[in-house]
Amino acid sequence: MRLKLSVFLGLTALGLLVLAQYQYGGGQASGSSFPYPEGFRLWTHVKSMELKPGHPLYESFGGLHHIYVNQTGLKTYLEGKKGPFPKGTVIVFDLLEAKEEGNALLEGPRKLIGVMVKDPDRYRATGGWGYYAFGPDKKPLSIDPASCHACHQGAANTDFVFSGFRP
Fold this sequence. Notes:
This protein is α+β, with helices and mostly antiparallel strands. 26% of the residues lie in helices and 29% in strands. It has 4 helices and 5 strands, in the order αβαβαβββα. A hairpin with a 2-residue loop joins β3 and β4. α1 runs antiparallel to α4.
């Protein structure tokens, strides 16, 4: 239960940071860049969750959350390892509005995606991970990678990755 709470809080903090940047505009914060990960929804789905009305963060962070990993990082998840993830791993956090129709919960419009890219040489200051965000229009959002990484400190024992694979 304690690990689940820390995972949730970490994802919430990341999402709030990214969502705040989305709402208040801006371009990519650092000089480095990463392209929008086209086709990420064809990657392996790691897990999903929903933040519902009544939750204190619902107004800024409510919706459906889907996590995807590219082929490079999949092996670490499948082996049940807690890291380290190999160089070239890309993890995408897809945040969508949740819509109810009839008795079904459906995906609404995308709010944003958050991206983690593993490259220990390029991202030494943030534990080997680069952090990026994109709006629904696929344009980069301004974020502070150091702030993202500060939130991910709670997952240092899993290579700064909160999500566990749900087979």
